[in-house]
Write a structure and sequence with these properties.
mainly alpha, two-stranded antiparallel ribbon, Jann2411-like fold, 180 residues, single chain
């Protein structure tokens, strides 16, 4: 089972511009995250859990970006303890039987279990250094580096392009020297 798509749930939650201060806002977020089919089950408790989870996941990425593997893994282990995974075989939308990480319980528990288990699988298979914070100023979004050469440094093509253009302009400015 490829859990990268589950790890992407963590990225989507941390990077979301949705403040998660209302049920409607949380529903919008779930639709954007591709999890909208169950958004009608969303409760105020789910809203609280998603806000809390966002901060906890952001702390995992921050520890990884600071190259503090122990702290990142410790935070993931704490999340695994609080968000136990319940695997279930499922079939929907014309797909074959496949594994889901919880289908029952609260919607936020389902989201949390998938995001945490996805990050855990990615970290144990590829390493903590595959979690990152965008290096384009002033962006603070997170990303998963699934590249074959561990070269990703930006959250998106837009940030990569913006950083490359800024670096190019800085080099050109340095080459032209001071102007009188």
């Amino acid at each position: 089972m490829d859990l990268t798509s589950y790890a992407e749930l963590a990225v989507l939650l941390v990077n979301s511009d949705e403040p998660l201060d209302s049920l409607e806002g949380a529903r919008r977020f779930l639709v954007e995250a591709g999890r909208g089919r169950h958004a009608d089950r969303l409760t105020r408790e789910d809203l609280r859990v998603l806000r809390e989870l966002r901060g906890e996941l952001a702390a995992v990425f921050a520890a990884a970006a600071a190259r503090d593997e122990e702290a990142a893994v410790e935070r993931l282990n704490a999340l695994l303890t609080r968000r136990p995974v319940h695997p279930q075989i499922s079939r929907h939308d014309g797909q074959r039987w496949h594994l889901h990480l919880t289908e029952g319980g609260r919607l936020s528990d389902e989201y949390a279990a998938g995001a945490v288990m996805g990050l855990t699988a990615l970290v144990t298979e590829l390493g903590v250094d595959r979690l990152g914070l965008c290096q384009a100023a002033p962006c603070h979004r997170v990303y998963l580096d699934t590249s074959s050469n561990r070269s990703r440094r930006y959250c998106s093509e837009r940030c990569a392009s913006r950083a490359n253009v800024a670096a190019y302009r800085a080099r050109r400015r340095d080459l032209s020297g001071p102007r009188a």
